[in-house]
């Protein structure tokens, strides 16, 4: 392994000059700095962040921890990551995406104890999340995107699922729909206690009941084919349904295809409203999907700012923020069959 | 900043016991190790990877370097990242995603000299890519996914765009199509020298010319709306076109919607074949898209294996591999209007 002395020898300068060139502690001419840089490159010498990290206990690197990369970084997650990376950069930090595999607790433990990062943003939080228990017991600042069942005292920002479901039902009720089904994420995500799946279902059941409407909920794997199958079964067993609230992007595309191919007009006979989605994803559908857009960019910005504040001021107040999805009314929602059109609340 | 001595004091053990517990150099009882772990957690002491990295010059972390996170990690890139992360894990390494902003060269330079990573996988390679010039001059092992205009001596794996275009044209020619247009990525990506955009266009122009067919190429921004606009203009000015080869997922959805809404049947009057895509993306379309699937998983695995081999054996032979996309014939390609159906070559 090359040492700083090797670099100094190759560059034809003293070791302290190398150190000054790296740390900026004393001025060094641009030409000398360039010679040092070339020598470092040739020798593969890589000292700074490690050494600086040891000396200052700061690396200016934040990790975005997320399991289940298989689910992808489409729509929402993508806006989220983009905004998070930008926010980190504005604060002179770098955000890295840290995928974890089956042993997510072990990998989180390793990450925290490696000392590579100043703080963590945790995605895909479950109601009962062992990663959060682990992080509670360490000194590394973190913020959750999502929240556990009892997030008291934890810093988090999340989607306001109750308000989101309220917005969806207001939009559809305003259009005269009385038989509204929810097409949600998979049974597996419910069983795993994935926050959005549990919270949206609970809000949907509560709010349809308050409105005196039946609460029809279907779970669906995260694929277009699964969406086709679930929609086919739903309309066979419940032909009275005139509106679908969906939260499952890939499945929504399959469901719309199945409804149209099954001879039902969208939105003439069936309205479809996709929540926790985005206008970009909606534009891929034909007819263009009415969506309620997840506040990905806001959550990314809030999450990173919260962590950086906690890195810099250990005792800063804890962020807790809920933001609802925003309605983008497009071509897949319309008046319920046999009703006269109202102006739905929430339409711009 | 907490020191190893602070940890030792809090845990009630000697500093060398802390060191043994961390390094495994001498056996330490499970109970002692647990006391050390708890003390480290309480004090926020984070020594190992940094210290180990300095001592061994190995961190077992690989970075996947990619600019332009805005473009997302849909279809292809996602399979790629998943396979790359899995492969790293199988080798006892961790893959982090390292997004870069506008100053991609500066950020790459910083990453290499921070000493945080053992090696790099570089995505979104341009024909003339200053990041590659930088990396050529350093000792950090890397592999390109994609390749520059003159990749002699560089380790890379990439899509075989010539064979991919040949497969697409064989499929469509076999169905009797003689007026085939290419709907590609944006002018901006062409101007930036983005490899796939340049190489697919060149192969398309060469191979249509060899077959005595006109070469109609349209560039299109990466959105469904842009796809609609470009398709509308294309069929207004070139109503003789009966087949589209597309390489631009979001735009393809818009183009199909525009063609159908414009009164042309797909595939009765216009066939659409999306290359460098995936069956998962194809399933979101209605009718289901015929795609040529990018070898994302293979490239992810090859890229990481190549870097790890170079990290472990500095003088290992350089990997250079090209893999074509695979045809998945679905519902958007069919016989050209007025021709009798042949069995298209390449159909499973």
From TrEMBL, chains A, B:
Keywords: DNA-binding, Transcription, Transcription regulation
Residue ranges constituting the HTH lacI-type domain according to the UniProt record: 2-56
InterPro entries xrefs: HTH_LacI, LacI/GalR-like_sensor, Lambda_DNA-bd_dom_sf, Peripla_BP_I
Gene Ontology MF term list: DNA-binding transcription factor activity; transcription cis-regulatory region binding
UniProt cross-references to SUPFAM superfamilies, sorted A to Z: lambda repressor-like DNA-binding domains, Periplasmic binding protein-like I
Region (Disordered): 329-348
Alphabetical list of PROSITE patterns matching this protein: HTH_LACI_1 (PS00356), HTH_LACI_2 (PS50932)
Biased composition (Low complexity): 331-348
Source organism, top-level taxon: Bacteria
SMART domains: HTH_LACI
Pfam families given in the database record: LacI, Peripla_BP_3
PANTHER family linked: LACI-RELATED TRANSCRIPTIONAL REPRESSOR (PTHR30146), LACTOSE OPERON REPRESSOR (PTHR30146:SF153)
UniProt-recorded name of the protein: LacI family transcriptional regulator
Biological source species: Haloactinopolyspora alba
Organism taxonomic ancestry: Bacteria, Bacillati, Actinomycetota, Actinomycetes, Jiangellales
């Amino acid at each position: 392994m090359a040492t700083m002395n090797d670099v100094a020898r190759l560059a034809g300068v003293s070791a302290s000059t190398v150190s000054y060139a790296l740390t900026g502690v004393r001025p060094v001419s641009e030409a000398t700095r360039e010679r040092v840089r070339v020598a470092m490159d040739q020798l593969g010498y890589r000292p700074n962040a490690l050494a600086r990290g040891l000396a200052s206990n700061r690396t200016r690197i934040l990790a975005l921890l997320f399991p289940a990369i298989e689910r992808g970084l489409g729509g929402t997650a993508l806006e989220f990551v983009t905004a998070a990376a930008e926010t980190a950069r504005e604060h002179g930090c770098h955000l890295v995406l840290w995928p974890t595999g089956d042993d997510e607790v072990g990998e989180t433990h390793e990450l925290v104890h490696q000392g590579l990062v100043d703080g963590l943003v945790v995605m895909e939080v479950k109601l009962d999340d062992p990663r959060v228990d682990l992080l509670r017991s360490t000194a590394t600042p973190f913020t959750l995107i999502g929240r556990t069942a009892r997030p008291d005292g934890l810093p988090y920002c999340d989607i306001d699922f109750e308000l989101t479901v309220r917005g969806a039902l207001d939009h559809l009720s305003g259009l005269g729909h009385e038989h509204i089904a929810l097409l949600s994420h998979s049974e597996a995500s419910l069983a795993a206690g994935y926050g959005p799946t549990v919270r949206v279902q609970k809000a949907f059941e509560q709010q349809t009941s308050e409105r005196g409407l039946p609460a029809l909920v279907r779970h669906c794997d995260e694929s277009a084919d699964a969406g086709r199958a679930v929609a086919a079964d739903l309309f066979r067993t419940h032909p009275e349904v005139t509106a679908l609230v969906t939260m499952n992007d890939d499945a929504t595309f399959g469901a719309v295809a199945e409804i149209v191919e099954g001879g039902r007009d969208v939105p003439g006979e069936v309205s479809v409203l996709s929540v926790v989605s985005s206008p970009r994803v909606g534009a891929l559908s034909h007819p263009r999907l009415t969506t309620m857009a997840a506040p990905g960019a806001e959550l990314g910005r809030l999450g990173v700012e919260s962590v950086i504040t906690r890195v810099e001021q250990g005792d800063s107040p804890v962020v807790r923020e809920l933001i609802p999805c925003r309605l983008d009314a497009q071509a897949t929602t319309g008046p319920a069959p046999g009703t006269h059109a109202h102006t739905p609340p929430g339409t711009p």
